[in-house]
């Protein structure tokens, strides 16, 4: 048999990049590469380790940046511009530190693939089950929020040409179709379309409010007062709700752990991550500040409606592909988690067998169906998403990361407990405690919001939801 070779860059279990020659063997199975999560990878199955650092950066940006940025101007009105910028910056710093810990922990524990795996390493079987519940709930409701966001865009663009429930079904069908692509390496091309469209849609609204005489929500004749607030006096519940919203809009570690697991070279992770976080910080602060400056107290919630109906339709239309890609990514990741959980250690995980495809499609379909039911059946869904975000987001991007750092750097055998290490340990403990405080305070604020809600939207409603969108 003629011998041919194919080159593939892949990481060893310690995260070191190697150049591997894949040489076909007599049985036709091809050369094999061992991965700590996906097992033996060969030419006869999906290549889960095939995302470069640029592709990872695009996926990171798309998973992080969504319409949540359009809630930031309203948050600045609630807490004041200066405290708002400080709080948002502080939250992004914490999340970035958590992202660093995620990448390092993955290299130290190559068999880790998800937040539940991290729970197992930290707290054993009980920790795995607890974080499995938290991760699945958080991700499923993020998928539901994505469906509602897509239906909102379709309502805005078509001027509510069809029942909202139909638009939610359309978004669910598109999600399950594209989320069923097996690997992130094959999905990354969608990320380019997604990030360009979402940035363009947001920028259109930002420019529009700057060149218009006044925002759409302001009185259209006579004098009007922006009532810009450098400092405000929010209640405890309002402040906690704002911080929880910032955390929810920037919480990306549960997606980043999946991204790094499918990178060709783990060592490139931090380059992708830092580029992403710096851009997110600059973009969020710029958009939030500019839109708040031009709209003041009349900023819409979300801010996409601040420039009027026409601009709103154009912006939603351009941002629609970005919303769809976010939905696809958030559908793919929890489905992949369940898939790996069910088939880990089996040849069906990394080979295109009938069992492989049946289980994989069942995972994507079940994830989509459950998210669809949640998104359509809960009458006060946006408030419930706020509750889920406040209750579970800190468990995804703050609380376990403190324990992760302590396990590898402070509690590890032979750890050097220098003054610097002790200070870093104090920071890790502080992040964990802040996460716990946010769970308590954010949940309290979300419950008050639900109690105060006067929403009359019924399950599977046809009501036009284009004047409200969850910050997913």
UniProtKB/TrEMBL annotation:
It is a multi-pass membrane protein. The keyword RNA-binding does not apply. InterPro entries: AA_transpt_TM. Residues 51-447 form the Amino acid transporter transmembrane domain. The chain crosses the membrane at residues 51-76, 82-105, 126-150, 156-178, 190-211, 231-251, 272-294, 314-333, 354-374, 380-406, 427-447. GO terms for cellular component: membrane. It is found in: Membrane. This is Putative amino acid transporter.
